[in-house]
Amino acid sequence: MSEKPLHVIVVGAGLAGLVIAHGLNKRNISYSLYDRESTPRDRSWGITLSWALPLLEQLLPADLFSEIKVCQPDPTLDSKDAGKAGILIRDGSTGLPKAQATFPVIRRVNIQKTKKHLAQGLDVQYGKKLLDISVEGDMVIAYFDDGSKETGNVIIGADGGNSQVRKWLLGDAAAQEVLPYAFMNFAFSLPADKAKWADSVMNPNVDVATHPKNMYLGLFLLDKPDINKPETWIFYFLVTWNIETKEDEENTPNRLERLRAHMDGWADPYKSIVEWLADDVVIKPDQLRIWQPTPWDNKEGKVTLAGDAAHSMTFHRGQGGNLAIKDAFEFVQKITAISKGEVSQSDALEEYDKGVVLRGEEVAISKAQAAAFHDYVNFDNSPFVKMGIKPAGST
């Protein structure tokens, strides 16, 4: 086979999309990158990167990877020290460790800081919402809400859990499953003395707990805008419990009141920090949603998926970011092989898609782990206790 010029259309400039674009750019493969957001979202969150870091290094330009620490909530945290601290799960009723998983190197990153860092050197076209896709012969066309369109050889949907590309591929089968848990995800700051205390007692990566009330609560650092001013530090909570009341089912606006009502019997650091929250803290409505991948018709290798678009999972085992990078790595490898004429486009993308669906077993594992956090008595049988944060299928 002779070399084949390719143009890849990447939909979504989140972690997966940005890393794919860098990987293609690094290998001199033409791409265009679109994102529907015209301004950054008003919500951020953290991602735990561990086993996928060597893959990320191969995809990014050396200068961006060498400065990846700027994406961390605390840029001063050494990745090896973070690896030793690992992921901590406590007994929420005592505050004592219940399970812990370590890894040689861990980088906890802030998604908004990461997107800003990784956008460097890329031509990201923002404010472009995908409306439709058509396949015409050997080409595929993306249509956007501003009336523009883009023609290429391949479209990859890296456009998140509510992926438009997935909807185009699968129709009703693209719909996410809503899990039966009340879910709160919100950021907050504290007075300087309380922020320093919280930072000193919490795990620097992931500090979460399961409670005899069959409830999950996670405490995380999100950002330290000024290392010397603790009052500027931003933390966030992830909280889930079984839907039990009409208020939970309807997700009524009294979220802080409902959260505080669930904190009886909780130990520190969680109990005190919830008490210290400002009464006007913003807790937006949210749902815990997943999507288990099912095989799709990729139109002879012209349309595919990556990251949350390909396998939306809960945060309860912390695999989403690593899998997004794994998808990106495998996709770039396949596109590179196509461009070199080593394999046909249809064969390469068929193999890629099979890998994506196989990696999707993590969705079921994350669902099982979510259930385990809400089943305190049986938590020791959970995937986290048995597998830690290693990917499924590893030894």
From TrEMBL:
Pfam family, one: NAD_binding_8
Top-level lineage group: Eukaryota
GO molecular function, one term: monooxygenase activity
Domain FAD-binding, chain residue ranges per copy: 119-354
Names of required cofactors: FAD
InterPro entries: FAD-bd, FAD/NAD-bd_sf
Alphabetic keyword roster: FAD, Flavoprotein, Monooxygenase, Oxidoreductase
Record-linked PANTHER family: FAD-BINDING DOMAIN-CONTAINING PROTEIN, MONOOXYGENASE, FAD-BINDING
Name of the protein: Putative monooxygenase
